[in-house]
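tool_call: predict_structure(chain=1)
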Amino acid sequence: MKPQEQDLLLRLLLFSEECTEAAQAAAKLMRIMMGDATPVTEPEAKQHLLEEMADVYVTALALNPDRITIEAIARQKSRRWEERLNGKT
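tool_result:
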């Protein structure tokens, strides 16, 4: 395997791990909001989720995406999310 391929595999691995950690942090916050007993407070859980989201963002950027394309896709998805949240779809 070429060094460039190994580097990409490592970056993808780190990105996937951070995505998993963000999902776990979101699930923890949901459990707290639903009243499950946990030693973590809701503000602490919210802060942890923000930190994990930042990790996802940083590792996504490390993949060197085509930012113009990503931003265009994000705009489309944002419009769809707004429609869903407003009950239009």
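agent: Residues 3-33 form the longest helix (31 residues). Proceeding to next step.
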